[in-house]
Request: fold
Amino acid sequence: MLNQETEQIRSQSIATGIAYAELNEFFGKELMESGYSSMKFLAHEVPLKIIIRVLKTDDLINENRYRLKQITSLVKKRLKKDVTILVEMVKDKGLCPNVQAEYIRKKMSEGLAYRRAVNGALRTIKEAGAQGCIIVVSGKLKGQRARSQKMMWQTNIYSGSPKEEYMRGGKSTVHLKQGVIGIIVKIMLPHDPEGIRGPRREMVDKIRVLDVKG
Reply:
């Protein structure tokens, strides 16, 4: 009996993960022009609730909400269950790696050099108050040989629980004449006691020097 329950929980977890991956890819393609950032998949709620974070909400929340109804209908057919989709605006685009990766993709598709496109995204990330970032552009950037160009700024974490809390990643691809160029953006969020722009909990290695009492 215990093995059957364990197997059922395992199957549900796998199905939820597959559905999340498929929907995330679907929203990334369909809402590319709206500045798709991320999604929350609340599988434990009835009906199933999905929260989409985009940069431009006017494309989805207009007078008749036709676009949102169309996407909801497609998701219902895929999941074969009742679904409620909510739209949330991205509060700070400079701290959203998917938005910045999409910005670089758009600028490169318009013919701008990749260094200038990356510098524009890096400037926006700095102004937003991020603690650090990593931008990787790979492909046939110059000539026929593919290579990767990696740009880093300030502090970045690669392991441990702070990485899960502070680091956010996004990626995109751009199709040019010389081939496909891959773009990866990772941003280290700032500490925010309110938990809006970044994690509430401070870094584990944060040291405070208190004044000596009397």
